[in-house]
Write a structure and sequence with these properties.
The protein contains seven helices and five strands. It is an alpha+beta fold.
Length: about 160
């Protein structure tokens, strides 16, 4: 996969290229030996003039690619949630007889991946689209930003253990 210039992947202070590399190795998505880690998908960043009503990102399993939409006011948590959500679509293909994209296996994998990647747990998700996890990531980011110097790693360790 050809990498574009670094600025292409930078959205809301998140380097999507680096984040993709890390997330593709999560155990929840197959681990270091899984298909995502062995054959990383193409990542496209779509730039929009305003926040889309829906489809903040999408996955195209047949082309092994994902897309994340950047828009004015997007938060780091929105970017992280969307990227991981779309990777889960590649890791958990739709199954006949279930909701086309967001069946029980998808939801369970996304919960596990959020916990593993970001320490986010206990989020009540009313639907499988976008928002609830992004809000939890932003709350976590605010809490960690308020930590005194030297305490950040302790707070992160506490969250992983919880």
């Amino acid at each position: 996969m050809k990498r574009r210039p670094r600025a292409y992947y930078l959205v809301a202070g998140v380097d999507l290229w680096d984040e993709l590399q890390r997330l593709c190795r999560l155990e929840a998505l197959g681990g270091p030996g899984g298909e995502l880690a062995q054959r990383q998908p193409e990542l496209r960043v779509r730039r929009a003039r305003k926040r889309p009503r829906s489809r903040l990102g999408f996955a195209v399993p047949s082309e092994w690619r994902i897309s994340v939409t950047a828009y004015p006011g997007i938060r780091p948590g929105d970017v992280q949630e969307t990227l991981l959500h779309e990777l889960v679509h590649l890791a958990v293909p739709a199954k006949p007889g279930e909701r086309a994209w967001h069946g029980p296996e998808f939801k369970a994998t996304l919960r596990r991946a959020m916990r593993e990647a970001y320490g986010v747990r206990g989020v009540r998700v009313r639907n499988s689209y976008h928002g609830a996890y992004a809000d939890a990531l932003e709350r976590r980011r605010a809490r960690l930003a308020g930590a005194p110097d030297g305490q950040l790693s302790l707070l992160e360790a506490e969250e992983r253990a919880a």
